[in-house]
Known about the structure:
The chain is an alpha/beta fold. The protein is 33% helix and 14% strand. Helix 1 packs parallel to helix 2 (72-81). It is globular and about 55 Å long. Bound molecules: iron/sulfur cluster and FE2/S2 (inorganic) cluster. Residues 5-217 form the Radical SAM core domain. It is an enzyme of class 1 (oxidoreductase).
Amino acid sequence: MDVTVAPPLGMLAELTHRCPLHCPYCSNPVELTARADELTTGQWLDVLDAARDIGVLQVHLSGGEPLARPDLPELVTRAADLGCYVNLVTSGLGLTEERLADLTDRGLAHVQLSVQGPDAERANRIAGARAHEHKLAAAALVKEAGLPLTVNVVLHKANHDVGALIALAERMGADRLELANTQYYGWALRNRAALMPTPEQLAAAEPVVRAQARRLRGTMEIVYVVADYYEKYPKPCMYGWGARQLTVAPNGDVLPCPAASAIATLPVDNVKTRPLRDIWYDSESFNAYRGEEWMREPCRTCDRRSVDFGGCRCQAFQLLGDAAATDPVCSRSPDRGVVDLLLRSPGEQEEFVMRGPVAAR
Ligand code: SF4
Ligand code: FES
């Protein structure tokens, strides 16, 4: 074990890829885990024990839709009994007063609710389902239960109306609103041309977010995640590879970032065949881009390398076919032209390709 590697702080537990929604911006992989290949309850309980054992303090129960797992209450109990802060990342569909009361009794501490648009017409079109009313009802239940609520919106060309989204989140009683411009991973990459916001939309959004964040200070925190293609420097993705968080996919694959299965060259370990501790500290996948040793120029000698860690490995692989390259979003990257070309000619695509259902096998 490398003594310089810190323990993980958080674990994203993707309990299932099954989901009642069909969002075109879905960042889950193109090939979803079939229901029959999901970890069993016993295996997930072992994962939670092992995660706490290596230091995990925050457990994000996610998917897909985690409410699709009948054993969710049992998993919440175990995570909470282990002393973890338990967050449910949900579409809200399937959340009833009884289920929420039960989960809260068992130790659920926080709910993160996705919203697809500022009104039912737009939101339901993007979700590919009549979901919006359920989300408003789910938010009311969370507030009645006295739990903190984060509303999460993935922004793109068809919903880039931040003023209306902020007003909606306020009406929902959100304590925190995340407005995150789409990252083009997994299924979202198929829809990039239809999703990419226009420069005018982005320019209009920034002052609105700034003014509203000021107005709502102390009431509702607003987190705005910029559209990185338009930026000069890349995002500090995952705050560094293998630095703070690990993801366990529905089939037990352990990933240094939720999108890392897109890196075809990355060997992936599974909780069924290797202890989580070994994977975190000693696996090829978690050590591949940890720290700075793997960096090449221009990152290797760059004054920003401890600020952004060379950007995003998944993006470097998806755009350049080389996960060890400097994120091409970076203006210092010799490949920045790839991103500039995409901005100039995003391609012709009006209609979304909607996310399909998970296969039984
Ligand atoms: Fe970040 Fe590398 Fe660009 Fe420097 S060259 S700003 S470290 S991505
Ligand atoms: Fe995987 Fe950035 S999304 S490293």
